[in-house]
Amino acid sequence: MEYGLELDDVTTEKAIIRKEKHLDGVEDDESTEDEDVLYKIEVPANRYDLLCIEGLARALPIFLGLDEIPTYTLSNIPKESMLKMYVKKETSVIRPFIVCAVLRGITFDEARYKSFIDLQDKLHQNICRRRTLVAIGTHDLDTLQGPFTYEALSPEEINFVPLKQEKSFRADELMELYKSDMKLKFLHIIEDSPVYPVIYDSNRTVLSLPPIINGARSAITLRTKNVFIECTATDLTKAKIVLNTMVSMFSVYCERKFEVEPVEVICSDAQSCIYPYLSSFDMEVPLAKITGRIGVSLDASQVTSLLTKMQLHGEEISSGEESIIRVSLPPTRSDVLEACDVAEDVAIAYGFNNIPRTQPVLSTQGRQQPLTQLGNLIRLEIASAGFTEVLTWILCSNEENFSMLNRKDDKTSVTVANPRSSDFEATRTSLMSGLLKTVRENNHHPKPIKIFEMGDVVLLDDTKDVGAKNSRKVAALYCNQSSGYEEINGLVQKIMQIVDVPWIEDPQVGDNNGYLIAASKEKETEDTAFLPGRQASIILNGKQVGTLGIVHPKVLGNFDINFPCSYMEMDVECFL
Amino acid sequence: MAEKVILEYLNSNGKIEDSGVFSASVGLDHKEIVNTIRSLSGFQLVAAEDIKKENWVLSKEGESYCELGSPEFQVFLAVPPGPEGISLLELKKKCGPELFKIGSSAAIKNKWIQIGKEKVLRKAEDVSDQLKELLLKIKDGLDVEQTDITNLKRRKLIELKTWIGYSVSKGAQFALERKKLVTDLTRGHLQSGDWENLEFKEYNVNAKVTLDGGHLHPLLKVREQFRNIFIEMGFEEMPTNNYVESSFWNFDSLFQPQQHPARDSHDTFFLNEPSATQSLPEDYVEKVKSIHESGGYGSKGYGYDWKREEANKNVLRTHTTAVSARMLYQLAQGPFTPKRYFSIDRVFRNEAVDRTHLAEFHQIEGVVCDRGLTLGDLMGVLRDFFERLGMKNLRFKPTYNPYTEPSMEIYSYHEGFKKWVEVGNSGMFRPEMLRPMGLPEDVTCIAWGLSLERPTMILYGIDNIRDLFGPKVDIALIKRNPICRLGINY
Q1: Are residues A306 and A201 in the same domain?
Q2: Out of A409, A426, A527, B256, which residue is the most buried by the measure of CB atoms under 10 Å away?
Q3: pTM
Q4: Could you tell me if A376 lies within 8 Å of chain B, comparing CB atoms?
């Protein structure tokens, strides 16, 4: 908890299996003795270095002051004897970046090997965004012969034996083969490209067809001694982070602990880079930025010793009032971007719950949005008039917005591009379907049912930056043996009364100030959700702000309601 | 009938000593008399005192011996007089095995009969059936000796029975005639003045009554209490009535990188119409782009190609922090003034729905913005806020949010569950979010958020969110839902 790690669940593998088999609660006494206890740990989403047991086992003793911060180094070999990776120009159209490294003299055992594969899986899921941004390939270097080339060729030109297969496939045939395999969900990343990325060694052995599959030839085994790691990417920053994570975590098993052999990557324009980039990044942070953000007074030496617990090396480079601390960020801590990240690490090491809780002094006044306040007052009055409030969803299906209400889709609704189901196809353009659904779900409730809702509908609106706006509405519904039109009409009049809008007795006389309830004169202008001739418009100051009427029997049928209903819906914002 | 007799007797004699004796004397059934006395006593016309008497009465077996004679007498009668007698087998047959078994031994003991090897003979010429006489005495209520009682009780021929009667005198409301009872007070009673002489029928004060009326929705009642708490604490409500938001305000302005998983179609509702925003504040967009790509203001940035098209994409806002971003940007456009902001409104997530998660829910958010606010201040504000909700014991756990640093999960000790429960998320907005907006360097923002539904479900013990929010909510539940006391006593 203190370190920001959450021990989710202490459980055993057998317990998980029991759960999966729904045998929970069935005691199984004999078998519990020799079970290994599993610790499920939730890791902060930006701490890729804590995704494997190697990283956790390194971080926790350091946090507890039991171990020292490791230094990751590149092996000291001359540039000319470095392994080389030549990048062909064509890769830029599909997957432009590649970074590589070598781990020499590694010793695997089953647990280490499993963790090695596991970390790749987790990184692929996580920072690699299911291999779209970065794909990792790891190879037994002793089966290959450098230098390597990273190319992009048309699928028909690529032929190799992929991992877990025995015969050679052409790349396009391979894609067909994998289409039936639901586990390989990365095909779409390159499938439609005219060229596929591919990595060869100097003998034209295929290392991998990223981000799909590695070649069988260079597969890692428990006996592998020298590991070649390549990360192909569409995002270079992330590729570097992934490579650094892989090598810093597993160089612990190398003959020379924490030492990594670099690889030179030479682009088509002859530009050359050496990876991995393991030197630490220095950040100069004023002490005040750390202590001031946390709200504790600590001196530089206290801060640096707290930083050490978090695997960050700190050193005061300027003392006194303007004390500045230089923080060295190891390659594993790509998450540290700014002084506030350093402050957080200090706060974690200090212990959040040890920080004094203070009361900020600032003069502000409580204030409500006028629309909320007005809305609340109207809601109270409607409830006082005997209507019970319901609260329904903004998201609905296209049918519920239009066809189920016997209305034509007038293309005024906001529509969702990626709904999981038809329930989330659109946002509501009126409150009507929500109230009708409530009646449908409450058909056991004694009649009359008198309900109301106040809430926002969403409408397309070109005058807004995003092209849509919310509009606050109030709606009420009466359902009984007979339509109860007068109840709904009475509620409209009641609302007008409480917002103090006068009734226009004769629209022909005087000005338009006030409201009137006007029956539609022509069939064409009627709202098809209501029974023809049994509906009216609510006109405020000469403008229509709402409608009321007896719900059309077809609409009732669409919502499986077999009692007559009357309904009104009107704008709230017009009363502001 | 009985009522009249009792009341008249009391009127002239003042007292009925024993309802049993009285019933015999007037020739009415005692049960009827007792019921009438009880009823009259309920209206205080008479005062009744219990009389309890214990009497020996005959059991069923005792009754039959009373009629047919004792078993030994019956056996004696079955043996014919004279030397011929009767064979044992025949006697058994004549009496029946049960009667023979009980009667023969007593008859032998009484020396009434003699059972020989071949014959059974009478031994006495004339006998008197004492058992029958004893039983008759008890039946008539005469005294018998205690030893006989013990003996008969052992043989289960008699039983003890409690007799209940009353001694009755005039009650406080004594009258020769009982007044008529009314069930309700009417306008007629008031007009006639009758109400003074009315006797009311007994009334069930515990009858369940349902009142018909209007009611507010439970979730919105809780929302109102939260709003009150914020307003009491000096917070200003943000205008959150804009569900459609551009990715720019929803993500980019918060320094949430464009490849962040939250921006996936698995988490966020993107829109077909309107698919993209029409305008953004261009100079600010430039600053946001450069802080993402290459950093600035002391930050490394994320180091990736920031794409305008991604920022333009419209979404249904995934958090109200999109509105907070707009408010802080607006605040940065003028001379700086400290602010406390809050909002409670709907947000949308394209995630799998289950018993506790819907695709839309209400987010409660608080933001405090001033020069030099600290993490300690955030914890202090949270302590005050949650204390008002009755959560006096808070703990904080480090966590990761893309736009706050440090970030803390808020835990409260739940007395009922006996464990620490996560009640919200909080943090200090990153400088990479605030500086491009134009806020001064020393201005910091502390913020926290929680959902409205979760605490409401815990408060009312609801385990399925559809029972609280949406069209499946039972209207009857809304009607009987109590007021929300959050923030009233803290």
Answers
A1: no
A2: A426
A3: 0.77
A4: yes
